[in-house]
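Example record

Each entry pairs one chain with its bound ligand, zinc ion.
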Amino acid sequence: MMAGEACHNGPLYLRVMTTQRGSCLCGEVAYEVEGALEHTHHCHCTYCRKSHGTPFATGSLAPARRWLRGEQHVARYESSPGFFRFFCTRCGSALPGDPVAGFTFIPLGTLDTDPGVRPAFHMFVASKAPWWEIRDALPAFNGFPPGIDAAPVADRPLRDAPGATRGSCLCGAVAFRIEGKPILARSCHCGRCRKARGTAFATNMLVPIDALRFTRGEGELASYKVPEAKFYTQVFCRTCGAKLPRIDPGRGFAIVPLGSLDDDPGVRPSEHIWVGSKAPWDEIHDDLPRHEAAPPA
Ligand SMILES: [Zn+2]
Ligand SMILES: [Zn+2]
Ligand SMILES: [Zn+2]
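Structure tokens for the complex follow.
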């Protein structure tokens, strides 16, 4: 529950009154936000990281959303009691859910235009990925910020024994290990990654193909290739929509969404690519190399 009076003061509660539309990567599903976007935030909880496959999810809260098309392609997964995460069954994009306590989570990366709002705080930083550093000056809260009167959710429990770097989806149906040295990790700001993940960017690790071993549920993987793309494919769990590793035999490596990992892989993001396509509402705060488009070969 939100404390009503908290919604009208302080920088955390900027409201923007315009109609916003969004859509998934494959374009089958489109929606319209009903009412104002507010409480724009970065969430570092383990559920958001798995669901989006990223260091954190960026979203706004709105009173509701209305499907414009493709509702038959929308699936939902109950990631914690009473809280459902929605995704496109065709492409795996994260989509807005149903309202909980009067608020609907809108994944900002799926919006088609600049919503005008800007992230105002970080939450669940106590669950932050060890491979990600927060470098901006926004307020950061270990759980929900003051004004959101909801019980905190415990970190997602791990099912698999320690050993080589573990990875898994949100529902646990799919699990894998990384055995071997990663090639590199980087953040991609291209329009496809933003739609696919529903976030500002995707942070992925490249590993040699033989370093990736699925230990459970490989048959649960769904994939969607962008028809006009040479390579671009999103792989996700068909039950929970979590983003998962993809083997690219043509290029000789596997692409692992860092958010899907359960352990620290040791590698750190070393560059930003496609910053020329960056979300207007996102700012880069580190001093890593930035490439306007694809990285040099
Ligand atoms: Zn889709
Ligand atoms: Zn979260
Ligand atoms: Zn799953």
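The helical segments are 46-52, 191-197.
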